[in-house]
Amino acid sequence: MDFRLSDDQLSIQSIAREFAQKRIAPVAAELDATGRFPLENIREMGQLGLMGIEVPEEYGGAGMDPVAYALAMIEIGAADTAHSTIMSVNNSLYCNGILQHGTEEQKQKYVRAIASGEHIGAYALTEPQSGSDASAMHTQASRNADGDWVINGKKSWITSGPVAKYIILFAITTPGIGAKGISAFIIDTARPGFHAGKVEPKLGIRASATCEIEFHDYVCPAGDMLGPQGKGFGIAMGVLDAGRIGIASQAVGLCRAAYQASVAYVQERKAFGHAIGSFQMIQAKIADMKCRLDAAELLTLRAAFAKGEADRTGGRFSTEAAVAKLYASEAAMWVTHQAVQIHGGMGYSKEMPLERYFRDAKITEIYEGTSEIQRLVIARNETGLR
């Protein structure tokens, strides 16, 4: 197997790394403390091509492949998980969803401004009563006399919801038939009937704005349905496959940041007259952290490669994406836990970024499919049993 990266992949990786270390890392702690949304940074990321990496150039993106996207996500995630969360939703869920299922008119109208960073995109599937059981939604859309769709309902945990210009929304168009009655829509948040509700006070990724959104007789033009009527649930699940690669990538970045901080610390910190890195217990932790980091990165890049192949052939990559997301997120949680332990009291202090890494890592095991859901996806795909 050839592990060498192309010039384009190395270029976007370098661009992301430089921006992450110069513009994101210095402000990450302050943004975490205040919860302030990093709008200026996000717009600059758009200008660098980071908010639409896989979007073809004719729609305002960088025109690169999924491996390039994963590499860039790792770099942004290593500096701040909140920035990478915003970037992931923009790329994997919003832009990818419209590129895969939208009409030419929809791509021209709704992708360009998002891929360039001029505006921000979001994705609305979860509801207060439906998380992992996504098809148990209540939000409904019904036709009016003009043939447009009137939407009513509430969605929750919407990343970038308070700042998004456009949102991919899933709603019931044919009640009583479960997942087959769900359709997808592109929502313009400037239209009457849309309301962004309370912002969630989160444990981590605090600079990534998350809120409830509500629809009260919101009129969505017929031309803004995404894909055919009744195919929304399939669209949602397919888009989440791509999203899981984004989350795996940010988890790898988080792993790397915690690991590198720990290696530097054990070389400098002394106890009993020796650098603590010379103690076998610490050495064992460092070795295990390194193994999990490398395995997570390789599984994530494999999933990104599989997506690229699927984009060309029309195949699936759901197993590879689920494996990467499951392993990388659990690796991030374990590695950051060990990093806090290695740093001792300083790891528990906000004077160092370890406690932020630890708080941020937890969400990677939850959003875009919990670890339990990833295990279901993997097992069902492998056995063929439901």
TrEMBL record:
Alphabetic keyword roster: FAD, Flavoprotein, Oxidoreductase
Reactions this protein catalyses: 3-sulfinopropanoyl-CoA + H2O = propanoyl-CoA + sulfite + H(+)
InterPro entries in alphabetical order: Acyl-CoA_DH_CS, Acyl-CoA_Oxase/DH_mid-dom, Acyl-CoA_Oxase/DH_mid-dom_sf, AcylCo_DH-like_C, AcylCo_DH/oxidase_C, AcylCoA_DH/ox_N, AcylCoA_DH/ox_N_sf, AcylCoA_DH/oxidase_NM_dom_sf
Family note: Belongs to the acyl-CoA dehydrogenase family.
SUPFAM superfamilies with a match to the protein in the record: Acyl-CoA dehydrogenase C-terminal domain-like (SSF47203), Acyl-CoA dehydrogenase NM domain-like (SSF56645)
Keyword set includes Plastid: no
Domain Acyl-CoA dehydrogenase/oxidase N-terminal stretches: 6-118
Essential cofactor(s): FAD
Domain Acyl-CoA dehydrogenase/oxidase C-terminal: 230-381
Coiled-coil residues: none
Domain Acyl-CoA oxidase/dehydrogenase middle: 122-217
Name of the protein: 3-sulfinopropanoyl-CoA desulfinase
One Pfam match: Acyl-CoA_dh_N
EC number in record: 1.3.8.11, 3.13.1.4
Gene Ontology MF terms in the entry: acyl-CoA dehydrogenase activity; flavin adenine dinucleotide binding
UniProt keyword GTP-binding present: no
